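In response to reviewer comment 3 from the previous cycle, which asked for concrete evidence that the modeling workflow produces usable outputs, we include below a single protein chain processed end to end. The sequence was submitted unchanged, and the resulting structure tokens are shown without manual editing.
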Amino acid sequence: MTISKTATNSNKVSAHIKRLEAPIAAATQYIRQIILSTDKEIGEQIKWNSPCFYYMGPMKPFDPKEYKRDIVVVNLHKGSILLVFPTGAKVNDTSGLLEGNFTDGRRLVRFKDMDDVKAKQESLKTIITEWLKLVETN
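The workflow returned the following structure tokens.
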């Protein structure tokens, strides 16, 4: 099943980011552009009350509770930006950017500010590219 990218979803993400405080909003917008520019098959939406990025292409059937389509969710945590990769444990991250050892397979990336985002952007793109290589397509 292929999912379409809609302007409505993008508008909702834009509206969500505009409500954030200026420095966090700018860094979140920058992260958004990094993620979306990584691959044309990445879409965005508001899910779990946060910007969420997902794979839009065709996939083999799976249990929705496995979150195989969800790439990353953007959360704010104590003044920093926290990226949650629901299935990040399956990615072979040689950069060390992915943190945590959660039994449910989540992995995290923390950003303090815009400079931190810019310093880690290539590693973030690499992680997303590696995640996409693991997608079980039809």
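DSSP finds three helices and five strands in the chain. We consider this sufficient to address the reviewer's concern, and the full set will be provided in the supplementary archive.
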